[in-house]
Amino acid sequence: MSFYLSRCPYGSAPPGLQETHSTQCPLLQRRGAISYDSSDQTALYIRMLGACVIFKQLFSNVRVRSQVGFEPDRRGSHPYLGVDFRTLHSRAESAGSIPARRIRRLFSFQRHLLSSRLLRGAPHLNTLHILDEDYCGQAKCMLEKVGTWNFDIFLFDRLTNGNSLVFLTFHLLNQYGLIELFQLDMVKVRQFLVLVQEDYRNQNPYHNAVHAADVTQAMHCYLREPKLAQSLTSFDILLGLLAAATHDLDHPGVNQPFLIKTNHYLAALYRNTSVLENHHWRSAVGLLRETDLFSHLPAEDSLGIERQLGSLILATDISRQNEYLSRFRTHLDENSLCLGHSSHRHFSLQMALKCADICNPCRPWELSKQWSEKVTEEFFHQGDIEKKHKLEISPLCDSEANTIASVQIGFMTYVVEPLFAEWARFSDTRLSQTMLGHLGLNKASWSAMEPEASGSSEEGESEPTRATEEPSSRALSQGSQES
Questions:
Q1: Is-contact 146 176, C-beta < 8 A?
Q2: Number of Cβ within a 10 Å radius of residue 285
Q3: 250 versus 126: which is more confidently predicted?
Q4: Residues 78, 112, 207, 220: which is the catalytic one?
């Protein structure tokens, strides 16, 4: 197929592709839509993206639906013992924060209108963008350095008003020339990315859209490494970016053991095997089909994208860490990894995504520490629910038996270090050495906060930690990994 042979980013467009107009999906099924009440009391629903109206005319009539509470989730809640996973990590908001939040949403809507006009080459006419454009400018400046390892995704998310995943992924797709090469409808691309971002549950402290944006940025850094940059096709890069953006889609904020022991329907559906990863993949496929993003491609190519997307996302199941790592190590020992073969390129993408998913301990301390606190908060929330309902507490989820430092030290020692040591053998570059350097410094920083861990002998501490390595790994993944 021509798609698999195209080189990025300068390959010519594959033959036979027809540009199609975007189609409108059912509008009432989505959060984040905007309703406009006309004089005859009928409601005209307008999607955020592609709306070609003047913000000034709508300002007094726009009503923005909140993401929680106004419209029921199309999948419904996941009931077990009265627990609604959608609000598991939600916090009460003060009454005074509601107007501010609504203003931010209005600014966000205006930003989408501005970007839509710019994509069509139309000038922006209203003057309400002045303050908001300042934020757009700062975000644009950050995107100029999107390939640097110290990229601050938290700051970028604030500058884009919580739309980091949409802005960053769209920018990368455009930067690699993938939108033009695969003749993708830009409105459909924007619509797909917005729906992906909406389906991440931002009530989760860790497994949310910001994490997905962070993984996508890390994936971009790996794709630019010489070995991959010289070998990957445009199709490979498209798959890698889409997999990174969707790898934790609709993560419920609890891990696979929790779903299994509570007889959750997802565990039954996927027979207790890679439960969350399968759900992330199927959710991504659902959005691809809902937006018809690849409807202009031959059916065989479209199905191939879906299958290989699933293969990448399923590789993030950390319970299969040793399987992938052993295979990777064998290839490196035997020097048998040939990136000229499509199967070997795909395997290298799987390893790159696995690294991107758990790269937080390899970031600079200021960023790594924030991720560590967030993932531990999510674990401890689950542990509190398990305690409340007298369930067996999952590994790493007991706030009385674990600390952030102890969780991080064990994770770095038995999961992160082995993976990134092999990645450095595969891609021995300045970036890989930088990541290992940060990993060592961050581990030392956590060890300094955990006197018992640093005071015990290396031999004495390895056995109990090794005994919990496997369940700890499962707890850290199940859809996406830890920092």
A1: no
A2: 19
A3: 250
A4: 207
Tokens of 277: 């990863």
Alpha-carbon span 236 to 224, nearest angstrom: 13
Q: Average pLDDT, stretch 149-165?
A: 97
Q: Give Dmax (Cα) for the chain.
A: 77
Q: Confirm if 208 and 342 have CB atoms less than 8 A apart.
A: no
3-state class of 477 per DSSP? coil
More confident residue, 32 or 249: 249
Comparing CA positions, the residue from 324, 343, 345, 291 lying closest to residue 481 is 324
What is the DSSP annotation of 256-295? HHHHHHTT-HHHHHTTTSSHHHHHHHHHHHHHHHHHTTTT
Would you call 247 a catalytic residue per the annotation?
A: no
Q: How far apart are CA 464 and CA 481, in angstroms?
A: 22
CA torsion sign for 370, 375, 376, 377 is positive
What pLDDT does 469 receive? 41
- 3-state secondary structure (DSSP) of residue 478: coil
Distance (Å, whole) CA 475 – CA 407: 11
- Cα–Cα distance for residue pair 401/387, rounded to 1 Å: 13
Q: Does residue 256 have a pLDDT over 50?
A: yes
Cβ within 8 Å of residue 241, ≥6 positions away: 169, 172, 173, 176, 178, 216, 219, 220, 223
Who contacts 370 (Cβ-Cβ below 8 Å, separation ≥6)? 154
pLDDT band at residue 450, thresholds of 50, 70 and 90? confident
Q: Name the strands in the sheet holding 34-37, side by side, starting at the edge strand that comes first in the sequence.
A: 43-46, 34-37, 62-64
Is there a cis peptide before residue 451, judged by omega within 30 degrees of 0?
no
**What DSSP assignment string belongs to 147-204?**
TSTT--HHHHHHHTTT-HHHHHHHHHHHHTTHHHHTT--HHHHHHHHHHHHHHS-TTS
Q: What is the pLDDT of residue 412?
A: 97
> What is the average pLDDT across 121-131?
43
Rounded (5°) CA angle 401-405-406:
45
Entry pTM:
0.73
CA distances for 150 relative to 111, 222, 362, 435, 436, angstroms: 26, 14, 10, 10, 14
For 62, residues 6+ apart whose C-beta sits below 8 A from its C-beta are 34, 36, 106, 109
Which two structure tokens, joined as six digits, stand for 254? 């609890």
Mean pLDDT rounded to a whole number for the chain:
78
